[in-house]
Amino acid sequence: MGTLQEGKRLFNLKRWDLALNELLGVITDNLNDEEITEIAYYLGLSYTKLERYEEGLLHLEQVVTAGTNNLWASQCRMTLAYIYVVTERYKLAEYELSQLLKNGFESVQIYTTLAYAAYGQKNYEGAIGLYEKALDLDSNNATAINGIGYILVDANMDLMRGLRLCKKAVELKPQNAAYLDSLGWAYFKIGDVSEARSWLRRALDLAPTSEEIRGHMKTLIGDIK
Questions:
Q1: In the CATH scheme, what is the homologous superfamily, with its name and number, of domain 137-225?
Q2: Fewer C-beta within 10 Å: the chain N or C terminus?
Q3: Does pTM top 0.85 for this prediction?
């Protein structure tokens, strides 16, 4: 038999699998509505951390509709949006994020996630505008800087400005594989194969299973192992 307290402790220790097992073992017969919602909250987040997205959705939706804790509901909406983005259900992501904005929540994360959803639907101008809104809140936000830079080079909109922005993102966070990948791709797009190979290799070393980075490297040099 599990307990909510132990499940929360394990979650905070980032032991997602153990937290999940503990929470699934909680007997809810004598718990009040808020405690039941809290279990759903931690179950949804644990499933998400373990990339078991479809199972996570059920619990996150339960928290959103329960209406017992606005903070939990808002965080769950943000997590729902993340799941919908990574599973390419962009319209659903936009809905969850628009509800957050409607409820008075404004953040860099909301705008950058909305921007990514717009980019996923090839709405490049819209995505850039949303990243710029994120930068209005945090002028040195590396995610937004990299996002604009990548779109500018990937969509052949402004290669040199895109390159400059990708460089800035890497300067801010030099160990971020996604930013290194963007910079490598920017160099590839301007025809500097040597620099492209160097930056893409660094990105691949940090994230060897990334399909996007591997795809960029394959475009550059052919099949990779």
A1: Tetratricopeptide repeat domain (1.25.40.10)
A2: C
A3: yes
DSSP 112-124: HHHHHHHHHTT-H
Residue numbers of the chain with a pLDDT score lower than 50: none
What kind and span of H or E run contains 83?
A: helix 70-86
Q: Are 86 and 61 a contacting pair, CB within 8 Å?
A: no
d(CA 57, CA 117): 18
| C-beta atoms surrounding 95 within 10 Å | 15
Q: What angle do CA 123, 158, 144 make, to 5 degrees?
A: 60
Closest CA to 40 of 83, 1, 69, 82: 69
Find all residues with CB under 8 Å of 212, minimum gap 6, and list them: 181
